[in-house]
Amino acid sequence: MIRPDLKPICENMLMSEGFQQARTLVIKFVTLYELSGELLSKQFHYDRGL
């Protein structure tokens, strides 16, 4: 299954909510998202869907 590019998705979500520093924040959010997918257990309550 193809994984979507999270950077533009996250950036658009942040900009639509009025964040001025969306480009700076998107790097941190995507890093957090990817690390949580790697380091947290694969249990159902850790739903990593957008």
How would you describe this structure to a colleague?
There is one protein chain. α1 (6-16) crosses α2. This protein has 50 residues and is mainly α. The chain has a domain at 6-39. The protein has helices at 6-16, 22-39. The protein is built from two helices and no strands. One of its GO terms (biological process) is cilium movement involved in cell motility.
Give the strand content.
under 5%
Nearest-integer average pLDDT? 86
| Number of strand segments | 0
Instruction: Measure the end-to-end span.
Output: 15 Å
Find the structural class using helix and strand composition: mainly alpha
> Which sheet architecture does the biggest sheet show?
none
Radius of gyration: 12 Å
> Helix content range of the residues, please?
55-70%
Low-pLDDT residue spans: none
Number of helices: 2
Tell me the series of helices and strands, N- to C-terminal. HH
How does the overall form come out from the CA principal axes? elongated
For this entry, give a set of tags.
50 residues; mainly alpha; 58% helix; 0% strand; elongated; Dynein heavy chain hydrolytic ATP-binding dynein motor region domain-containing protein; ATP binding; AAA_6; DHC; Dynein_AAA1S
